[in-house]
Q: What sequence folds into this?
């Protein structure tokens, strides 16, 4: 009896000592949040002095701001000066007169074109006119009047990345309907740029998150960086995974930029083949192993998978060389059991075998397998 | 012993949130205990947002933003959960004894 009491007391003492140690031993983790690219940028740096971490993080944010000004699809830098991308779009619309562009933009366009070809045009940054028609080239999104004739005409005008001709740091387009919108590319490019800069500065451990797209350098102390994957219909993470040095993760979802019209959700991801927002998919997450351009791939590769119909998603992933992916698809009404609301937003989860091994599920519905089916693609 | 271990794990499980950190732009605006019921008014670039704290939970109750995504998110209850109002540059993050993850992919 007395022994038991002493044991209890000992545990209580050890516990309180451990907790106070933890409270006083502040770990060398610097964390900053800022708003760039119309989204939240979240930078964690581990193992540097606060002063150094702060100055490095500020430099990264400045670089992001510059890139944002350069690549903005609809905002000019100021009243007299369009963004570099805006000027290029104006030149494309005006005719075939080549204009000078920066070597950095040349690299981006060459790379984006290669990825667009790889995706069979499902990743298509040339459809800026369509994106604008749907009202997604604004700071806030409200329902638009859907103009079917205009959408049909824009699809028929076939804007493609391969219409763009680049020679000696100049560019023109063979198709005046090409309007670049790098909204599905720039954040990934910025991740690669920031990771490169921080590694150059000999930073050993950092985690950079731009609007949900994340790249890891090193780890968080003695354990890997850990990231949560947002549930598309709940204010919580659906799963977590370790993001090891050099890996990147990206999600395309229908829940960050969308509007609801007559009970239907219209998201910002538009199928270039019919000009309409995709309505069969809620989220696609891709995990990218270390490689040059891992950040870009984490941004780009989720789009073709998102746009592909559920039956073709595995093929779309294979086209992009993606092994690790998860699809959260809208559950077809035919699969719903009786008693469910016809408009209940049920989800089917499809996860590739390679990614399934890395995920720890948090969502109780997934754990209980009650409302959500976990399917494995073969 | 088993019971005590269980109690420790339950009370200090990673899921349990005790505080909410409110950020405005790039600054930590304030951190509040989740057990005290209150409405917090935060003045963002678009105007006043009201954040409601009650019984271990927190939510955006009112926001001047157009889409109201932040309000539609509803209650946050577990450590690590976040709600972000991009147009008004206000974010909420629930904080517990342990962080279940370092950053959120969305």
A:
């Amino acid at each position: 009896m007395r022994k038991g009491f002493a044991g209890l007391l000992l545990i209580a003492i050890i516990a309180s000592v451990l907790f106070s140690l933890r409270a006083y031993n502040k770990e060398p983790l610097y964390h900053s949040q800022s708003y760039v690219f119309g989204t939240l940028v979240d930078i964690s740096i581990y193992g540097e002095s606060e002063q150094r971490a702060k100055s490095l993080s500020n430099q990264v944010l400045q670089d992001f701001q510059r890139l944002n000004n350069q690549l903005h699809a609809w905002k000019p830098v100021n009243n007299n000066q369009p963004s570099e991308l805006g000027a290029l779009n104006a030149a494309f619309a005006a005719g075939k007169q080549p204009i000078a562009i920066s070597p950095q933009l040349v690299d981006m366009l060459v790379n984006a074109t290669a990825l667009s070809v790889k995706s069979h045009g499902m990743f298509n940054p040339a459809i800026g006119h369509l994106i604008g028609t749907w009202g997604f080239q604004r700071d806030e999104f409200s329902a638009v009047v859907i103009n079917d004739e205009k959408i049909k005409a824009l699809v028929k005008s076939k804007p493609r990345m391969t219409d763009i001709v680049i020679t000696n740091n100049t560019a023109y387009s063979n198709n005046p309907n090409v309007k670049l919108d790098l909204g599905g590319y720039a954040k990934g490019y910025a991740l690669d740029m920031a990771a490169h800069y921080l590694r150059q500065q000999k930073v050993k451990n950092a985690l950079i998150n731009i609007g949900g797209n994340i790249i890891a350098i090193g780890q968080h102390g003695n354990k890997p960086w850990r990231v949560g994957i947002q549930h598309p219909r709940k204010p919580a993470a659906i799963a977590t995974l370790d993001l090891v040095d050099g890996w990147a993760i990206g999600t395309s979802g229908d829940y960050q930029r969308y509007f609801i019209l007559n009970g239907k959700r219209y998201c910002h991801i538009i199928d270039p083949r019919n000009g309409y927002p995709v309505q069969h998919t809620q989220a696609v997450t891709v995990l990218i192993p270390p490689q040059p351009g891992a950040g870009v791939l984490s941004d780009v590769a989720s789009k073709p998978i998102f746009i592909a119909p559920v039956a073709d998603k595995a093929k779309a992933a294979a086209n992009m060389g993606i092994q690790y992916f998860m699809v959260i698809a809208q559950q077809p009404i035919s699969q719903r059991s009786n008693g469910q609301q016809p408009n209940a937003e049920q989800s089917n989860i499809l996860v590739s075998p390679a990614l399934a091994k890395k995920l720890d599920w948090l969502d109780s519905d997934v754990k209980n397998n009650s409302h959500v089916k976990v399917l494995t693609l073969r | 012993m088993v019971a005590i271990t269980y109690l420790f794990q339950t009370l200090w499980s990673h899921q349990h949130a005790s505080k909410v950190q409110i950020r405005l732009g790039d600054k930590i605006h304030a951190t509040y205990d989740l057990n005290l019921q209150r409405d917090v008014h935060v003045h963002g670039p678009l105007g006043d947002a009201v954040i409601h704290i009650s019984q271990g939970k927190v939510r955006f109750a009112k926001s001047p933003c157009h889409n109201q995504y932040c309000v539609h998110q509803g209650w946050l209850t577990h450590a690590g959960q976040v709600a972000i109002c991009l147009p008004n540059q206000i974010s909420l993050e629930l904080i517990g004894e342990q962080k279940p993850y370092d950053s959120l992919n969305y």
Observations:
- Residues 2-11 of chain B form the longest helix (10 residues).
- The helical segments of chain B are 2-11, 69-72.
